[in-house]
Amino acid sequence: MQSADVIVIGAGVAGLSTAMQLALRGASVIVLERERIGNGSTGRAAGLLGQLRGNVEHTRMLIDGIEIVRQLEKTTGTEIFVQTGSLRVAETPERAAEIASLVAMGKSIGFDIEHLPASEVAKKLPYMRTDDLLDACYCPTDGHLQPAELVSGYLKVGKDCGVQYKTNSPVIEILHAGGRVQGVRTAEGEYHAPKVVNAGGPWSYLNAELANATLPTAAIGHYYLTTRPDPNHPVDRMSPAIRDRELRLYTRPESGGLIVGIYDAEPDQHNMRKLPVDFDMSRMKAARDSIQVARLLEATNARFPWIDERTPMTITTGIMTFTPDARPFCGEMPDLEGLYHCAGFSGHGIVQSPTIGLIMSQLILDGQSSYDCESIEADRYFELPGYMTRADIERRCFEMAGNYYTKIEKATPVATGHA
Ligand SMILES: Cc1cc2nc3c(=O)[nH]c(=O)nc-3n(C[C@H](O)[C@H](O)[C@H](O)COP(=O)(O)OP(=O)(O)OC[C@H]3O[C@@H](n4cnc5c(N)ncnc54)[C@H](O)[C@@H]3O)c2cc1C
């Protein structure tokens, strides 16, 4: 039997960042991972980092996260953040109005953002169709995080601060008595701690069930393609990322080719309980004849006419964790003291993880955070009718995932804020 101040279940970016921040403040931490480090959703991610959200506090979290990453880069001597800049494009009046509101909100908090006429977009992105665009905006400080390098950074700092990482150690029971957490059990034995963090990604709802709790997350499939370098359509390493919400697409450069991902209208749903105990997400293969791949190729071809089903490419698929409102669950539930959830990043866990780790460490060690966490509190659906059965939860998360890119954001400018 071993003990620590905090046990973290799951060594994806959420668990690793939380463990690192806790250890930086002197807490003793054990991370238990059912398989290999960073081999869940984290190992499949494209890593796109767009800082501007419709919500000012979420924007601030992402801006601050870059500072944490810059510090990690200094410590490890590795490039994690590739600051390519990013573009959002609009092909309808509604999307143009959305861009106008984002530009106004961004400027009101001192964020670097500009309108970009379609002619300028064409100059920046000669490999993209632009003749149908009504407007675009450009954020020069956006880019992408390299997930493997981010994992290495969290791991290095965590190890230096004494975090213990145990792989091939699935947690099979959460120990509790009298309304308080006491630790966890694995096949090898018990680990005792007064605080346990459920950072189990797509498995997070099953981990909650180990403590008889309900966590409204669901496991949703996601796809992107990566083209090989094409001399006729060169993609510079520092080419800006693109978001085309009307076509549900995002892109970024990758090794001379292009990653193009889709937030599909009807994504796959996964039942994590039915997957083998030794399920390895890196071995998931996308069926080339699936409807999701067909829709990805169709939408990609509409924006990049030189990419079609004959283009040399790989297709990556993996599992994300969605919530009913696409915001994560971070913190304790009212019915079990010491059990903290940190899951449900709805396609943004890589980029949210630097600040989320900091927030989790504050909640666990101080009982409160320097960030306004209302919108990500773990108990916001606690015992709410319509969110208690697995079928209801899955339906709501699935709807949110399917509508995620099509909803129009209404950003509100603020008089003062954080730059
Ligand atoms: C195809 C794809 C593309 C994506 N693109 C982006 C992107 O561009 N930008 C972005 O920010 N995000 C992206 N994401 C989302 C991102 O990958 C996730 O939000 C993020 O990795 C979540 O991290 P996590 O630590 O919560 O989960 P995970 O990385 O899944 O880690 C959870 C870990 O917990 C372990 N675990 C679970 N239960 C137990 C247990 N009982 N005992 C022990 N261990 C356990 C699992 O084995 C796993 O390693 C993408 C995801 C996919 C699938």
UniProtKB/TrEMBL annotation:
One Pfam family linked to the record: DAO
Is the Cell inner membrane keyword given for this protein? no
Q: Which SUPFAM superfamilies match?
A: FAD-linked reductases, C-terminal domain, FAD/NAD(P)-binding domain
Name the coiled-coil region(s): none
Q: InterPro entries, alphabetically? A: FAD-dep_OxRdtase, FAD/NAD-bd_sf
Organism, as annotated: Lacipirellula limnantheis
What keywords would UniProt list here?
Oxidoreductase
Q: Does the keyword Oxidoreductase apply?
A: yes
**Gene that encodes the chain:** mlr_2
Molecular-function annotations in GO: 4-methylaminobutyrate oxidase (demethylating) activity
Q: What are the residue boundaries of the FAD dependent oxidoreductase domain, all occurrences included? A: 5-363
Q: What PANTHER family would the database entry show? A: FAD-DEPENDENT OXIDOREDUCTASE DOMAIN-CONTAINING PROTEIN 1, SARCOSINE DEHYDROGENASE-RELATED
* GO CC annotations on file: cytoplasm
Its domain of life? Bacteria
**EC assignment:** 1.5.3.19
User: What's the protein called, per UniProt?
Assistant: 4-methylaminobutanoate oxidase (Formaldehyde-forming)
